[in-house]
Amino acid sequence: MYRVLVADAINAEGLQPLLEYPDAVLIEKKVTDPDVALEKIDAILVRSATTVTEELLEKMPQLKIIARAGVGVDNIDVAAATKRGIVVVNAPDGNTISTAEHTFAMMAALMRNIPQAHGSVKNLEWKRNSFVGQELYGKALGIVGLGRIGSEIAKRAKVFGMNVLVFDPFLTKERAKNLNVQSCTLDQILEQADIITVHTPLTAETKGLINAEAIKKTKKGVFFLNCARGGILDEQALATYIGNGHIGGAAIDVFEVEPPGEHPLFKYDNVIVTPHLGASTKEAQLNVATQVAKEVRTYFEDKPVSNSINLPAISTDIYEKIRPFHNLSKQIGAILSQCVKEGVHELSINYAGSVTELETSYLTKALLSGFFKNRIDVHVNEVNALLTAKERAITVGEKISTNAFGYANSITVTAKVEDRQFTIRGTYIDHYGPRIVFMNGFNIDFLPEGNLLYVQHMDRPGVIGRVGKILGDQSINIATMQVGRKRAGGEAIMVLSFDKSLDDASLDLLQKLDDIVLLNRIHL
After folding, report:
1. Catalytic site includes residue 276
2. Does residue 258 have an active-site annotation?
3. pTM of whole model > 0.90?
4. What is the mean predicted confidence (pLDDT) over 371-377?
5. CA 306 to chain centroid
6. Could you tell me which CATH number the domain at 2-93+283-301 has?
7. Which superfamily, per CATH, for 316-523?
8. Would you state the pLDDT for residue 312?
9. CATH topology of domain 95-273
């Protein structure tokens, strides 16, 4: 009999899959209740109120699975759970429709001044001329991030007769055509859109994505929405440009600090705000509860779960054999993602040598999880990697070869975009570790970790020296440097590593060098 602790208030109807499961008993109590035998709990269901810490996990030695009835897992120590072989699952698409509808409602309310007019009439006023709005029809809507929620907003916007512009590094021409949207750069959206809404995950890359410099590029009178994650839109910059009249208005559901307390945006009448209500519908709460209840039951029935956040539990012996190649695969995927930022439509993976004796499909999923990491609005792991690729119209091919290019093993991956392709090859050497030995047509040899810079340049005297001088002038220390070329005087590459990530200003200086062909920052 499995003992399931329902630690937070979760929709009772949504728990039916577990209530109907004869091998489970549900205990609806808080983790702090003295009569809860934590050491006997097999599964725990939480929302955002309960924080699952390493300390709590130490008190639950029998715990097998943690289920979060929602999208985020910020309140769960996933690393500690993974270390203990505990599976963590969530409900990534349970609130998709709810958040999309809330965003669209905020957009309509913003354009038609509905909250302001409502308050005015409630105050016994009748100021029709004070609340003249704008139609959505014919407006250019810029969507930053076309994941599940962004896609649903695009569908609704097309029905309203809007022109939909999309910025998403993984948007292929085929998917853009199917959704009838226009693929753009971020600058194109900033310059052309009448309304801009953000729907990306909050990562190091997206934090402050819409900042003062970005807002300067927008049309006068542009409208902004953020119903995704606080911090993507620079709130202080937004307040500044609303105050000077450049921005026509904003609708904000999420804040960098919640609750926000006194906030500079609150003094403006053309700003409407809600207290993080994107997922706050009866349907969404039922959906997320049902999803995680089904996931826990599926796990108890010894079937693969669909929305695992961490690695599935495997035996120690198997994991030790596959671990070096698992890590190498993720690193290759992450490097490829950061070197090929266009919409990839095909990934071709070739395994050769001793690695072919392992379960390569597991490595393919690991590679995809590295490829998608921090680039889309859902967490991707070995469980949902192939489905994520399918949803984004990316063909994934896996081949076994006898040619390991002189190494005991090799993993070679080629990413294909509309007009070019990019190939990376890696190997794992016992007692030496993972190495990247081939990139974009060049032989190379470097350790895939830390802060890297990929530089493609003309093979001319002084290029390496000029790169070094610029970095030295910026007080940036080069930790390692590896070089490669095809022939003297042609194109060549260098891969540099640093103790910290290279800043934008230094990257701009390097880009201005005459012989530089391509630069890519890589963080692993």
Report:
1. yes
2. yes
3. no
4. 80
5. 18
6. 3.40.50.720
7. D-3-phosphoglycerate dehydrogenase; domain 3 (3.30.1330.90)
8. 60
9. Rossmann fold (3.40.50)
